[in-house]
Write a structure and sequence with these properties.
Blueprint lengths: L3 E6 L5 E8 L13 H8 L11 H8 L3 E6 L4 E8 L3 H14 L4 H20 L2 H13 L13 H4 L4 H11 L5 E7 L3 H11 L32 H9 L3 E9 L7 E8 L5 H18 L3 H18 L3 H13 L4 H5 L1 H6 L3 H12 L13
Parallel strand pairs: 1-5
Antiparallel strand pairs: 2-4, 2-5, 3-4, 6-7
Helix pairs in contact: 1-4, 1-7, 10-15
């Protein structure tokens, strides 16, 4: 039926993490209905055709499972980590809501208010979050990345039950899903589980108009946000322009990745002064290049994070699921550390030259009082 399944066997503890990702997110929402993918994520914890709205959560709480869900621009993921003896129950619950979700109008209206309250609390009442929301809208003026996954309140109020039903039927199907099982489970056990709970036929194939990065590691080269990096040394230590500074890479599709530099200015320093020095630094570093020792430190940091990831079954399963959803093969994920090791200083500096001439959006957030 087209569903991808990945098994990561680890028998160190008798627990299993069940991560199911649907390749649909806020970037797939119709114009004027932003936030719908996230609202549907909330509704997935409500009624199904054969169970009431509290059944799913109550069953997982009874077995002591850790569970949650998240919506991004490209994916919606659902995870549950539980003792191995309850894995069948977890799979039964998850497969049931994949096929039998019942979106009831009264439940939807209540949950919509929960989502709106979440947006007001997490974004609208936090100045930095509001600023980033504006930056995203300016940075990506055309759909689909011009809004955050939680959506705009006016759009949220436009969503109808029928919109959610159409979205669910279009994207929540085996051919658009990736299941990763991580923990105390063998390949043969996983095959039996999948045949029992996820073997329903999917007569339609979901078509998404996306162009993914073919090689994520090429854009993961610039890592200058640690306190050992040249950006931190120049802005914080040498010039004392900021209390802290970091950078972040958000990889989306082939034409919409973003590189963010965020900083809090020091007392009596204007954001304009900091901006000028950032321009000086980026242009200088594009010409002279990063130092080899800083590149090696960045590579080591990335690789050690890969090692730490194996200590958490859910993180490991989610990592594999996301990379698989990006169209990358399992071997790429398994050998990611080696790929990072193969990156040269020249590779990094070539990427820096592209960064220095890229279009950018600059936001100065000045707090009152």
């Amino acid at each position: 039926n087209g569903m991808q399944v990945c098994v990561l066997s680890d028998k160190s503890l008798p627990i299993v993490s069940h991560v199911l990702i649907y390749k649909v997110g806020s970037s797939d929402e119709p114009v004027g209905l932003s936030g719908m993918a996230h609202v549907l994520e909330h509704m997935m914890f409500k009624s199904t055709i054969n169970h009431d709205e509290n059944y799913y959560i109550n069953q997982l709480r009874k077995i002591g499972a850790a569970f949650n869900a998240t919506t991004t621009e490209l994916f919606t993921s659902y995870y549950a980590t539980a003792p191995k003896q309850y894995l069948n129950l977890v799979a039964e619950l998850e497969s049931n809501r994949m096929k039998n979700l019942a979106i009831k109008d009264d439940e939807f209206k209540k949950e919509l208010q929960v989502v709106i309250a979440e947006k007001k609390m997490r974004l609208d009442n936090i100045e930095f979050a509001k600023a980033y929301e504006v930056v995203r809208n300016v940075q990506f003026p055309n759909y689909p990345f011009g809004h955050l996954a939680i959506g705009w309140i006016d759009d949220l109020n436009n969503i109808k039950t029928s919109d959610l039903e159409d979205f669910y039927k279009s994207y929540y199907r085996p051919s658009n899903a990736i299941l990763v099982l991580s923990g105390d489970i063998t390949k043969s056990e996983a095959e039996q589980l999948v045949k029992k709970y996820y073997s329903s036929k999917d007569l339609e194939t979901v078509s998404l108009n996306r162009m993914y990065k073919a090689d994520i590691v090429n854009d993961a080269k610039i890592y200058i946000n640690k306190r050992s990096g040249q950006l931190y040394e120049y802005i914080v230590k040498d010039k004392k322009l900021a209390a802290d500074i970091y950078s972040e890479l958000n990889i989306r599709t082939i034409n919409s990745s973003e590189f963010i530099i965020d900083s809090s200015v020091s007392q009596n320093i204007s954001t304009e002064d900091l901006s000028k020095h950032l321009d000086v630094f980026l242009n200088k570093i594009a010409d002279s290049g990063l130092k080899k020792e800083h590149v090696e430190m960045a590579k080591n940091y990335i690789k050690i994070n890969q090692v730490y990831m194996h200590e958490n079954l859910e993180d490991l399963a989610t990592h594999y699921a996301v990379f698989l959803a990006l169209g990358l093969p399992v071997d790429f994920i398994k050998n990611y550390g080696d790929l990072v090791s193969s990156i040269s200083v020249t590779d990094v500096n070539n990427m820096l030259k592209k960064l220095a001439v890229s279009n950018f959006v600059e936001c100065h957030l000045k707090m009152q009082g």
